[in-house]
């Protein structure tokens, strides 16, 4: 197994407690994350696109020090009322995301767009169904971004005040991963892919990150394999899945055929070992002595 996998030292004890019925699984919180891509330049067709990643601060309780994409939890207010919407209808998104209602689909897509703006300063919205905002680095935009982060402003209010519609057609649903049942902080996370809109640029504004980087997916995966970058299994898996595509547009087009079946880690006892697996992703299988500790990146 790669030396770059994020693996908390408390997992073995929590797995044992769950197996013994001594631990109640926490209900996962809905979340969304966006793999923001841009072409590398004139040689994009040869080099492929690069993806925007951030390194979570080591002080973060969940996945501290790990590289990830912009993202975060759903704001309950995103379910409250319908917003200005462009692109595939909400019924399409509910089916694609595997959720029961259109309001839940809206909330997940809103979380993806809102978190990308909050953590990278990039906004997938425009004044019409065929346009997207340009430069979002002005003081007025920054004030709105800070208000969104603080939850002083809902995303629906933000869009309404600026006369914007959410451009859901600029997003493609790519994968869905659910935090294991033995984790104290659990998320049901939808992964999206999007291309950086023309005229916009990312900014290092996330309070949860201490570093950002644009990097080719294959290079990021290689550095994970070498133990140079710490990552969680869904991050590595999506990087590997993005690597074959030559342009951001090509990757976005391929989103429609990605498998959205939720991936949930499983743990079982085999003799004197605990075996931790992610179904369909054998590279992350972890063997832990049942009577001993474990932990660290492994």
TrEMBL record:
Domain Nudix hydrolase: 27-237
Cofactor (UniProt): Mn(2+); Mg(2+)
Name of the molecule in the record: Nudix hydrolase domain-containing protein
Organism the protein comes from: Streptomyces filamentosus NRRL 15998
Keyword Manganese: yes
Keywords for this protein: Hydrolase, Magnesium, Manganese, Metal-binding
A Gene Ontology molecular function term of the record: metal ion binding
Listed PANTHER family: ACYL-COENZYME A DIPHOSPHATASE NUDT19, TESTOSTERONE-REGULATED PROTEIN RP2
